[in-house]
Design a protein that fits this description.
There is one protein chain. The chain has a seven-stranded parallel beta sheet with strand order 3-2-1-4-5-6-7, sandwiched between helices. The longest helix is centred in the middle third of the chain and has 28 residues. By secondary structure, the protein is an alpha/beta fold. Helices cover 47% and strands 15% of the residues. The chain has two domains: 203 residues, Rossmann fold, CATH 3.40.50.720; 34 residues, no CATH class. It binds nicotinamide-adenine-dinucleotide. Nicotinamide-adenine-dinucleotide binds next to helix 1 and helix 6.
């Protein structure tokens, strides 16, 4: 308890899956959590449960980022960490990816992470430092043909993270920037992929936890523990890294 006591932390895409788990664990560990998402109904409900603040935000909208940071500065006076987590994963290979899907994927993952990092740095500089955590994927590390646009976007997030980490270090901002690369973790995004790609509806299995373990799929807290570590002072010497959480899948 208290590993991130009183740290002011924004988590995007916090109304579901990994973002929800991050928000819950950060709140348990003492953080002041600001949850954002396009899904206000689910977001408000979780925020009320854990004592967080909810802010409706589409991360692919630049103005929304400005509004969010203005609110955070006014209400909380500082920003200690940002978790750029919001995302979509459209199943389509190179021959079947439409321009609309390509642009939407880049808008959420790349534009969103870019504006998030840029606006967070501006605020973090004022209070002497912070930690930015960008949710990438193992799709940034190996080829996943059925996720063409997603892989490209996650690869971009990985590279952007390192460039930001080095810049902040050179400028002596005391702002760290790291990416996390989960393999398959049990969230609505992966449940949809399993149903579509291998015909398994994990949520309808008699013992879905057993099925999850047998299929080698992680649980959201496997990632949330890493997020808490990267927000906390325990990781003060860690920047520019790529934290892989995939039960060894990409180690072969
Ligand atoms: N689950 C996995 O196995 C896995 C693996 C690697 C990476 N990731 C990444 O983790 C992140 C979270 O994924 P998840 O599995 O929890 O998915 P999820 O679908 O359960 O949750 C994603 C959340 O993002 C929100 N969102 C979508 N578009 C948004 C937008 N434009 N602005 C704000 N919020 C938006 C959704 O409303 C939803 O609440 C994503 O970036 C995803 O790519 C997930």
């Amino acid at each position: 308890m208290g590993r991130v006591q009183d740290k002011v932390v924004i988590v995007t895409g916090a109304a579901s899956g990994l973002g929800e788990a991050d928000a819950r664990l950060l709140a348990t560990e003492g953080a002041t959590v600001i949850m954002t998402d396009i899904n206000a109904e689910a977001g408000e409900k979780i925020a009320a449960e854990i004592g967080a603040t909810f802010f409706t935000q589409d991360v692919s909208d630049e103005t929304g980022w400005k509004d969010l940071m203005t609110m955070v500065e006014k209400e909380f006076g500082r920003l200690d960490a940002l978790v750029n987590n919001a995302g979509i994963a459209v199943i389509a290979d190179i021959e079947n990816t439409s321009t609309a899907v390509w642009r939407r994927t880049m808008g959420i993952h790349l534009d969103g992470t870019f504006w998030g990092c840029q606006s967070a740095i501006e605020l973090m500089k004022k209070s002497g430092g912070g930690s930015i955590i960008n949710m990438s994927s193992t799709a940034a590390l190996v080829g996943i043909p059925s996720y063409l646009a997603y892989s490209a976007a996650k690869g971009g997030i990985r590279a952007m993270t390192k460039a930001i980490a080095i810049h902040c270090k050179q400028q002596k901002y005391h702002i760290r920037c790291n990416s996390i690369h989960p393999g398959s973790i049990s969230t609505p995004m992966v449940h949809h992929a399993l149903k579509t790609l291998v015909g398994v509806d994990i949520t309808k299995q008699a013992d879905s936890e057993k099925t999850r373990r047998e299929m080698g799929i992680g649980e959201p807290n496997d990632v949330a523990y890493m997020v808490v570590y990267l927000v906390s002072e325990e990781s003060k010497h860690v920047t520019g890294t790529e934290m892989v959480i995939d039960n060894g899948d990409t180690a072969v």
